[in-house]
Amino acid sequence: MMRILGRSTSINVRKVLWAAAEAGLSFEHENDWTLTKDTQGPEFRSLNPNGLVPVLVSAEGVLWESNTICRYLVAKSGRHDLLPNTPFARAAVEKWMDWQVADLNCAWQAAFLGLVRKNTSYRHDQVAIARSAERWNDLMLILERHLAGTDAYIVGDTFTLADVVVGLSLQRWLLTPIARPSTPALIAYRQRLQIRPAVQAWIAADVP
């Protein structure tokens, strides 16, 4: 059986758990990595030399990088509804996955790490936190306008991997103590995601 290594408070681990559950795959979740098990020692670094979670251990080998693992899981299960196999339709999903990694991850760093994680590098830097929150809000308003047009999911009527990675980012934004603009389309979108069985099984609603 596949093993997913990493604590469920990690947003990247939750991506993989959610994707695996949506794909209907059997797996074991080892939640204690970075909690009671060290990810910096030789045992873990033999799996991922970066010392980061998540890691997927399967009969075919070991994978790291959350979006890569998510793509593998849906390909393994043949779920082309989650990640289409035609070039443009697939790119339409992956552009939002890349946006989440490249843009949202950079935007929230100071605000989230300073206000939620209480990271010593950020928690006293109010200027960096304010700039981070402003940039984060600007990006989420892009998503607000986009979802106001689809009135469903990221790429239209069908739930895809884009909704896994962006949906978790939305949850993080809503649970970080910053001032936020009004976003009715995002709130309605989150409600649609929250009723999914995979979310109810694996994604705690109060974890940013």
UniProtKB/TrEMBL annotation:
Residues of the GST N-terminal domain: 1-81
Matches recorded under PROSITE patterns: GST_CTER, GST_NTER
Superkingdom per UniProt: Bacteria
Domain GST C-terminal, first and last residues per copy: 86-208
Entries under SUPFAM superfamilies matching the protein: GST C-terminal domain-like (SSF47616), Thioredoxin-like (SSF52833)
UniProt-listed InterPro entries: Glutathione-S-Trfase_C-like (IPR010987), Glutathione-S-Trfase_C_sf (IPR036282), Glutathione_S-Trfase (IPR040079), Glutathione_S-Trfase_N (IPR004045), GST_C (IPR004046), Thioredoxin-like_sf (IPR036249)
Official protein name in the record: Glutathione S-transferase family protein
Organism: Methylobacterium longum
